[in-house]
UniProtKB/TrEMBL annotation:
The lineage of its organism: Eukaryota, Metazoa, Ecdysozoa, Nematoda, Chromadorea. Coiled coil: none annotated. It is found in: Membrane. It is a multi-pass membrane protein. It holds the Pfam family ELO. This is Elongation of very long chain fatty acids protein.
């Protein structure tokens, strides 16, 4: 259900005529499809993924709320939120690698190969895309582009 609610920020962006970057809609659509595909399997590792996602998204949407209210938030907050998202995806990989190891040892798990490999591929794509976003926004050119855009908006 939370994945459906997260489309609300996409709708708000469209209504406010803000640009939608590829990363934004790709992440929402792919995660929603994965949630639908894996929901009926009641997979234990999804609990870990869900709680990490909830934690990061609570901070992120709190940040968006403050910004939408016109409250100035230091630029480093956005950078740290992106860092938390990337760490979330890396931790998810570690969890999935452990599950893969268990399966290789003959341990029965509550996931199907399709769901497992889909999750691994999805999370890998997120590391690549969010990593690229981080590089482009905060590192390339010393992060000057990000700081200039943040200064203009505030």
């Amino acid at each position: 259900m939370s994945k459906v609610l997260e489309f609300g920020d996409t709708i708000l962006l469209v209504l406010r005529k803000k640009p939608l970057i590829f990363l934004h809609w790709y992440h929402h659509v792919l995660t929603m499809n994965y949630a639908i595909m894996s929901y009926s399997h009641d997979i234990a590792y999804n609990s870990w993924i869900t709680w990490m996602n909830f934690t990061v998204h609570s901070i992120m949407y709190g940040y968006y709320m403050l910004r939408s209210m016109g409250i100035r938030v230091p630029a480093w907050v956005a950078k740290n939120i992106t860092t938390m998202q990337i760490l979330q995806f890396i931790i998810t990989h570690l969890i999935l690698f452990h599950v893969g190891y268990l399966v290789s040892q003959g341990v029965e798990v509550d996931s199907t190969p399709t769901v497992f490999w889909s999750c691994l591929a999805m999370e890998f794509s997120y590391v690549v895309l969010f990593g690229n976003f981080y590089f482009q926004s905060y590192i390339k050119g010393g992060g000057k582009k990000f700081m200039q855009e943040k200064t203009k908006k505030q």
